[in-house]
Amino acid sequence: MVFSSPIFVFAFLPLVLLVYYLAAPHVKNFILLVFSLLFYAWGEGERLTIMLLSITINYFTAIFLENQIYAWKKKLLLFIGIGLNLGLLLYYKYTNFFVANYNLLAVQQGWASIVMDRVVLPLGISFFTFQGMSYIIDVYRKHAEVQYNPFNLALYISFFPQLIAGPIVRYHDISRQLTDRKVTLELFVSGIQRFIIGLSKKVLIADSIGRISHELFTTSPEGLPASFAWLGMITAVVQIYYDFSGYSDMAIGMGRMFGFQFLENFKHPLSVKNMRLFWTHWHISLSNWFRDYIYIPLGGNKYGALRTQFNLWLIFFLSGLWHGSEWTFVIFGIYHGVFMVAERLGTERLLNKFPGFVQNIYVWLVFCVSIILFCSPDVIFAWKYFTQLFDFTSKAPFHQVWLYLQPEFFLLLIMGIVFCYPVRENFLRIMYHRFTNQQIPQLVEFLGYFVLLVFSMAAMAGSTYSPFIYFRF
Known about the structure:
Elements: H1 6-22, H2 28-44, H3 48-66, H4 71-109, H5 125-140, H6 150-158, H7 160-163, H8 171-174, H9 185-216, H10 226-257, H11 275-278, H12 284-295, H13 305-323, H14 327-351, H15 356-375, H16 379-388, H17 407-418, H18 423-434, H19 439-462
């Protein structure tokens, strides 16, 4: 079940809201937990037990940490808890990757190959594993109190709005909200508005223009004209941005409907002027997680330039691995780590000498090239696709994408690129500033949300099944 499906929008979410608000205050968390587990079991079935095992590991680890007085034993318990979390993640996410690469080496060296069934990746395991680890680390650091109520902890890890694709919610950010939260009319309405924005991002832009990138990244790139290669790359960037930020908007919106206030996960990352700023505006929850739980404990920037550069590069290497168990994702992380280190070494100062629009084009180009790795099935495919960007001799024979190159596609693509910048926010700010009668801009804003909802509902009714890209992580 995905947020942009009719069954979720018109059945599951209204049912959860109805039962939640009819329930007594002391059972509201339990209601949300039951529906969250049902939501996960809807698509994952028996793999729900893996998430329940993760919850159990973190629940008892935190209790043991809280009741242990010796510092060295606390540290040992923390390492065991982190090890168990990472063990689950490594087994389910990377076993196939390690086995496949070992077997390739075994063929070359004459070793015996490993024969085993493919391990099925549980949805959202990267997200709920990182949330579980954040909980036990926060308890260890005394940044949060231990949660003795197992249902409250289970709700924190399994809460359906952000369970499958984030944002990654750290325990100390919402620990109080688990037991003490209030839903005001203003908060609830803002949640609905945010959900509509996310839904429209997904079904109106991401799904519509994503057909181009899907076609171009699932067929051989050999002989692909440069124009098509560039078009596929740009549409992939726009699709991924609207797909993932749309999901985050819906998660944040639904959280508000239930009284939770999650931190922002995207702040117009494609509008900034360097890659350092990009990664403070893109998937913010993941960047902050790596910063607070890995980069700073490794020393951050306290031990000289060389150590700082290594720490930066390592964070992005691990970030690439987090995204997926393929060499393309490993290179994706290394690639961005190189640009982060390069900017710290001086390219950012060089960029600052250019006009702002040139700096922004640099960000688009750097990220666009990395998206080739992100969307390609393997490194060879990615390299072939990259070379086609500069093959201006190839002709454009009939290709499946011709079927989608209609005027409405180009209109949506242009709108998608334009709204990568804070256009809506600036428009609303100017409108509310200029009208002394605040009811006029409020009416305009209401009509805007209504139109978006109507068009989104129409798009859902006529679309095929389209899961979120980040579900696979």
